[in-house]
Amino acid sequence: MSAALLYALAGAALFAIGLAGLLLQPHLLRKILAFNILGSGAFLILVGLGQRDGTADPVPQAMVLTGIVVAIAATALALALARQLLDLTGQMRLPEDRPDAEPVDD
Amino acid sequence: MKVWLTALIALLCSGLALALGAAMLALPEFVVRLPGQVTANLVDSGVAHPVTAVLLNFRGYDTLLEVAVLLLALLGVFALSHHASGHAHPSAPAHPVLQTLAQLLAPLMVLVAGYLLWVGAHAPGGAFQAGAVLAAAGVLLGLAGLLPAWAQPGVLLRGGLALGLLVFLAVAVAGLPQGELLHYPPALAGALILLVEAGLTLSIGLTLAGLYLASAGWRQ
Amino acid sequence: MTPALAFDLLLIAALLWSAARALTIADVFHAVVLFIVFGLLMALAWARLSAPDIALAEAAIGAGLTGALLLDAIGHLRAKRREPEQ
Amino acid sequence: MTDFLDPLPWLIVLPLAWGTLAFLLGPGRGGRLAVAAIALQGVLALQLAGQLIDSGARVYAVGGWGASLGIDLMADGLAAVMLLLTQAVALPLAVYARGYFAAHPKGRALFWPMTGFLLAALNALFLSADLFNIYVTLELLGLAAVGLVAIAGGRQPVTAAMRYLFATLLGSSAYLLGVALIYGTYGSVSLVVLTPLIHSGAPLAVTLAAALMLLGLLLKTALFPFHFWLPPAHGGAPAPVSALLSALVIKATFYLVLRLWLELFAPLTTVAAAQLLGVLGAAAILWGSVLALTQSRLKMLVAYSTVAQVGYLFLLFPLATLVPPDAADSAVQGGVMQAVAHGLAKAAMFATAGSMIVATGRDDIGHLGGIDTRLPLTLFSFGLAGVTLMGLPPSGGFSAKWLLLSAALETGQWWWVVVMIVGGLLTAAYVFKVLRRAFLPVAEGDHVARVPRTLEFSAFALALAAILLGLFGAPLLDLLAIGRAA
Predict the structure, then answer these.
(1) What residues contact residue D69 under an 8 Å CB cut-off, 6+ apart?
(2) pTM
(3) Is residue A63 part of a domain?
(4) What residues 38-77 of chain A have any CB closer than 8 A to a CB of chain C?
């Protein structure tokens, strides 16, 4: 097994960890972290599998560079929305995810 | 209810990881192999570094759309910080040490960005890394209060943000009479790619800095 | 086990640990710090995958700028939390 | 084809360019530029359709490299139909938006640049023949749509935009993972290269990739039970934005599901999976219609109606999978016709809803009294759009449902007919709920203002187009057939 394939397998685990975090964590900042971890997992799979025969492949590497820029764009927009939501509601979570009586935590 | 839902999601996610792992361990030989094709066409690409060749030439169209994604995210941040401007207070004048530091460091970072941009033609580096360094300089200057206000960008700032995309579009369209969209004549490819990258570096730097400063601007 | 393989396994373990901890640790500030560590480890992983371009971008954008954005958001969150008490 | 005026690349370049220029011009500017440019895009789309009719489907190698090294664009009948729909919906809506934001300036500042990028993303998506390039167009589309939902600010729209952002990002991440698996298996992301390589004995990674990509796209299309994000986002955005999102944005991901199902992953499709998609579609029709009936806010009613109408699109899958080619053709035609008819009618419906809200000053079905006398053309347009959604002749909605119906009868799947009839009755119920209120006299204390004429006429043009589609839809079906493998 090549080292690249090993990282692809790690990518699969990261994708699953990120997915679980995105679905289960109510706090918006943590959902944003989870989305970034999920994305990193997909990127590792793209490059890792693309290089599983041991040769460096510039094509998936360039794709991941594109993907990293897209990810920061999405992250920045998500953070701006989360802040706006905090200003409007005093909470960093989506309203339905929040039992009314629950105290604020961070 | 909540507990079994959590357990179910955890189970599904682990299942996905296992299925992915099993699938990866059972892959057949590649049918198409691109690294060889990249090397074979590198001479005509205008640059000597394969990743830059893919990013700006072979798959330059992806990059064109990606620059639009970045600008779009900044538009979204602007739209949101615009509504929050009611909350914003003029930020306190920055610490003089920070200002001096920023004035010293920023030109140095611009130099590093210029180096990264130039080196990208034949070694790791290029517009995105250079833009990121430029963004760091921009954030520093912004925190020191040495950049114009981001919440309502003036025409000069808007021009800087849009420049990269406009130059890229102009170069993309300039290829149409001789060939397809984004076709670079091999003789001019190196120069055109450097032109595009220079515009991108400036705009990416400003945009990334803006993503930080436009939202930080309205913190109380 | 070769030293290279040992390093890869160690790095992967650290990646998975920092990712999982960033999503489960109680305090969000610690979570963000762990996430920045995760980003730097990712940069190392890219270097191991012969992808120095991505390693540079990941360190600068993935860990650096994303980290700065997240820390700034936490500053905003804490400022907001203090507000009602004043 | 290396002509400078080739319409294909300009359909992508033009909206990107005017979107950027609108940003450069400054907050709120660029409306006139946008209208002119979208009209030009409409001409380009017609020109491209003409090329396809003359000489068949086209592949366009960006940069001259060609797949797999470079990125290919591809224009066939299906892509051309979607491009025509996009420009046909966008032009009246741009005219509408100029009037709407003049009367209702909240959110005007960045509407035009974001709309330019949104249209660029749509055109690029319909033309792309590269799985990774499609991912980039999906992200451009998703971020533009989320940004547009949030532009007016306010608690409800920002909450909706946040939820929408997570849904759309999760969808594109699942799609991207699928792309990574496909590249990891074959070493290419070009549809042209991959389509002949995938067969029924494909490795597990490919099956997994197909499932992940389709699931991600279904989430973005808001197919039941993934519809949770749609009503607040479409119901809370400014009216021209709601219209763009309901008419076009969800159709883009539906288009990808259709293309992947019929072409790339066709050897992997099974009757069970197709029936499942149909069942989810049926559930969407019933659930969305019933919830539309219970809404008290006009735009939420129209948004839930979108949830229901998306369901009809997915009825085509059980009717087109592993059945005789005649029935499959009829089902695909019906599904695409439904996408076009709903696009036009729903754009009209959101536009008229926006006018009624501007006129009454509130989003409440209980206070629509007096609309019939003050905004008769708007109410008429709402009614025409309703006729299309119900599927009554001679509308485009009727043609769509007729084609789906005949495919259902031809393949002996009568249960889908029952769903369509019940769905039509429920649609009639929620459309009449609005109409009935609008014919009441003005309630005490209410005031119904007039709205700019451009709001009324642009919505009418959309509603009329949805009806005319039923009478003159045959050329569109001929266009659709171009490049479809028999």
Answers:
(1) B34, B37, B38, B41, B58
(2) 0.96
(3) yes
(4) 40, 43-44, 47-48, 51, 56, 61, 64-65, 68-69, 71-72, 75-76
